Amino acid sequence: MEIKILAENIKRLREEHNLTQEALAESLGVPELTVYRWEAGRELPGFKTIKKIAEFFETSAEALVNSTPDDGKDSAASDKVSFNCRICGGDLVYNYTDGTCKCANCGNKWSIAAMYPKYAGIMATINKATRILNGRADLASADDADLLFRQAIIECSKFNDEVSSELIKICTEGQAKADQLEIYCRGKHFFDNKAYKSALKELEKVRGFRNADDMIKRCKRQA
Question: Where are the beta strands (DSSP E) in 54-175?
Fold first, then answer.
């Protein structure tokens, strides 16, 4: 196996699908540095990993390690969205919250990003935004998450299918949560500075968000 050929093919396929190294790494469940080393020809993936990469890009392991990039498939094939199981042809049930789909017939389960590589970058962006929302409670995090959701919506808008529509809904909900985080942060800032009336005014808008309810009770006791 010529490692240089494999490296070139991985990079070519990733770029053809408009994926960053980070997005491909997240979709395959490997560190971003590993993808970098593959493409630089510094590390050779194992055979099982090569098969996984090939399946992700809907090509064959043989095509991936050959010098000829054409695997005989329609270049637009990976852009087509099918709502049937690859194994038995059964209907797929989608869970857009965790980014997976499962066959209602045989039970096989895949990530949406693995089923449809064109959505891998979008899913990576959504997952990153979600992690930010679930992390630190500060205004910068709210702004960063909102920006990432906006980027994902713009990318989803390029497609017109059920998957893109559902992902846009998730992004819209994410933006609403980012707005809540921003309000919560303002309220917490007032609370920490003992400006309880101002804190109460903000926190009342985000009841049920994080520990807003606890702070509301304490504000009312101080008022």
Answer: 92-95, 100-103, 109-111
